[in-house]
Amino acid sequence: MVTKAAIAEEVKQPGRNLPLGMLLAWFIVTLFYIGVIVITVGVLDVAELEDMYQQGNIMPVSLAANKFMGLPGFAILSFAAIAAFVTTANGGILAASRSPMAMSRDQLLPPFLAHVSPRFKTPHSSILLTSGFMITAIVFLDIELLVKTASTLMIILFILVNASVIIMRESRIQSYRPKFKSPLYPYIHILAIVTYGALIIDMG
Questions:
Q1: Where in the cell is it found (predicted)?
Q2: How many CB atoms are closer than 10 A to CB 204?
Q3: Mind listing the pLDDT tens digit for each residue in 115-137?
Q4: Has residue 1 been placed in a domain?
Q5: What is the 3-state secondary structure (H, E, C) of 128-154?
Q6: Which domain range does residue 76 map to?
Q7: What does each C-alpha distance from 37 to 79, 82, 88, 191 come to in angstroms?
Q8: What whole-number distance in Å separates Cα of residue 130 and Cα of residue 113?
Q9: Cβ(18)–Cβ(5) under 8 Å?
């Protein structure tokens, strides 16, 4: 969701299309996840799931695909997983590269990071810098520590997003006139902050 907000200036009618896209994505992905879980539990026996859990196997969906469709099912699922990783990485770079560009426009970073490619209409310098930083971190840092750190920072970002909505709406800033106002304000934001905080504590 934060990725969508980072590219708001590149979206037509962002006040309408961003909230609509987020809600549709959430609804579709939720239905898809529920379907995958139902199929996985239906294909695999409870004993098989217990054995996988005890052995530390975290691929019940792959096992279900292999059992349901054989080797072709396993291959299709593996390809889909790789494609999902690629699209996730693309979305991450897409969003992360816009932050240096915005900071460069505000004169907080060197001006070259705000340059936009005349051909592709993308901030190529910022994308190269962000991609290089990501590759360096993956190569030289402990991957498990990197994943935990990234997950924690993302959750903190979600907390700050919800807190900022409350702060900006309660401060009565005249220039703050969002076209979309989240429902059940401020209860849903307070619940999100508390839930994310508890999640960080539970992660250790």
A1: Cell membrane
A2: 6
A3: 988 888 888 899 999 889 888 98
A4: yes
A5: HHHHHHHHHHHHHCCHHHHHHHHHHHH
A6: 1-85
A7: 19, 19, 21, 26
A8: 10
A9: yes
Domains of the chain: total? 3
pLDDT tens readout for residues 35-57: 888 888 888 777 777 777 777 66
On whether residue 50 sits in a domain, the answer given is: yes
Is 133 a domain residue?
yes
Task: Indicate whether 2 and 63 sit together in one domain.
Answer: yes
- Do residues 95 and 6 make contact, with C-beta atoms less than 8 angstroms apart? yes
Distance (Å, whole) CA 82 – CA 145: 22
Cβ 8 vs Cβ 18: under 8 Å: yes
Do residues 120 and 162 both lie within one domain?
Answer: no
Residues 15 and 73 in one domain: yes
Q: What would the pLDDT profile of 72-107 be if each residue is shown by its tens digit?
A: 878 888 888 888 888 888 888 888 888 889 889 998
DSSP-H helix ranges across 44-70: 46-55, 60-69
